[in-house]
Amino acid sequence: MTDIPAKLSFAPGNADHLTGRGSMATGHASASRPVTGATPLLEVRDLSTAFLTSNGELPITRQISFSINAGERVGLVGESGCGKSVTGLSLMRLLPPHTARITGQAHLAGQDLMALSARQMRAVRGRDVAMIFQEPMSALDPVFTVGEQIAEAYRVHFPVSRAEARQRAIAALVEVGIPAPEQRYDEYPHQLSGGMRQRVMIAMALICEPKLIIADEPTTALDVTIQAQITDLLRSLSERTGAALIFITHDLGVVAETCTRMITMYAGEIVEDAPVDDVLTRPRHPYTSGLLRSLPGLSARRGVLPSIPGRVPSPGRMPDGCRFRERCGHAMAGCEREQTLLPMAADHVARCWRARDLRLPGSVNDMAADSPVAHNLAVAAGEIRP
């Protein structure tokens, strides 16, 4: 157990600013981007994960490397099967050791998570790094009240009484914008709506004030209105508590609104890592460009919506060289060679040997002037009224 912080940020009060009703629901994500050059909170180096099968090891992710500063919000994007969730679970050490082999390093505040024993990792998990899972109905235990589950997460790490843990849990429910928190504390997961269950998951992740939060597609099963509230909540809490956030999602619009940096994954590799503004202005990898072009908001009204042909290759059948080349319209001789992340700018890298020469479509500069995204960006820049 560790000492209780002298002052936790959780305190009962008005939570309007967390539910999209306050002024913090608007604004540009890059405004609070951490200062470049700060010591990274999380530094991942050559993190690889393979699943053990009857036919041997099946590589899922390969040599994942990136760093995150304190307070930074990073979007991890890509199609299903690209390795985003596996990367998050690997960082949390939640994959069963008898079926998964993880190599590489992941230093959180100077401590290598991959070198910790199972007991040491249990002390870190929830306290220093926490995860918000994709489907709260599966993650929450149906036989315990939501309040008991939040309080348990707190009591595991701090030597407090049940009564104090209850008060902390109720304060956490207030913090995430749940009405009537004393009543909700004693309710079971099935008695709550999908949006409220997801808020419970966020409260459980935040109650110990972790340095890093990994949110694995936390808005997938929610309707559009609740999605906006949850993303506003995560952004607001990250800004106020200083917690770093890894936001795993398919929704590039959410990344543009919530995150300061975007990491694009394809077939188990990072193919581009850059500030969100830079990616929206000029993507450097054809896959990132294809994802942007697939957004309905970037296409002209009544126009044909572009798509990326083919599908992500299965882990056991990865092509040589560039793993995207069989789906890439810019592939040519040379793409069959092994690709490495090349620097495009001080904080922008791309895994494509042609990246410096390509002028890729799909950026904000190439969007249709009458598209919804163009309108929203013009409003955010103050060029037009909402």
Strand sequence of the main sheet, in spatial order? 6-7-8-3-9-10-12-11
CATH superfamily of the largest domain: P-loop containing nucleotide triphosphate hydrolases
Low-confidence stretches: 6-36
Label the CATH architecture of the largest domain. 3-Layer(aba) Sandwich
Share of β-strand residues: 15-25%
CATH fold descriptor of the largest domain? Rossmann fold
Through-space gap between termini: 51 Å
Rg computed from alpha carbons, rounded to a whole number of angstroms: 21 Å
Supply the number of structural domains. Answer: 2
In N-to-C order, the SSE pattern is EEEHEEHEHHHHHEHEHEEHHEEH
CATH C-level of the largest domain: Alpha Beta
Query: Major β-sheet, in short?
Result: 8 strands, mixed
Q: Helicity level, as a percent range?
A: 25-40%
Number of strands: 12
What sort of overall outline do the alpha carbons produce when their principal axes are compared?
Answer: globular
Overall pLDDT: 84
Number of helices in the DSSP assignment: 12
- The secondary structure category is alpha/beta
Task: Characterise the protein shown here.
This protein has helices spanning 84-92, 118-124, 136-139, 146-155, 162-175, 181-185, 194-206, 224-241, 252-258, 276-281, 286-293, 372-380, and strands at residues 42-53, 56-68, 73-77, 100-108, 111-112, 129-132, 212-216, 244-248, 261-266, 269-275, 342-345, 348-350. It is of the alpha/beta class. It folds into 2 domains: 16-37 and 70-88 and 117-266, P-loop containing nucleotide triphosphate hydrolases (Rossmann fold, 3-Layer(aba) Sandwich); 279-300 and 321-380, no CATH class. Strand 11 (342-345) and strand 12 form a beta hairpin. Helix 4 (146-155) packs across helix 5, helix 4 packs parallel to helix 7 and helix 7 packs parallel to helix 8. The radius of gyration is 21 Å and the shape is globular.
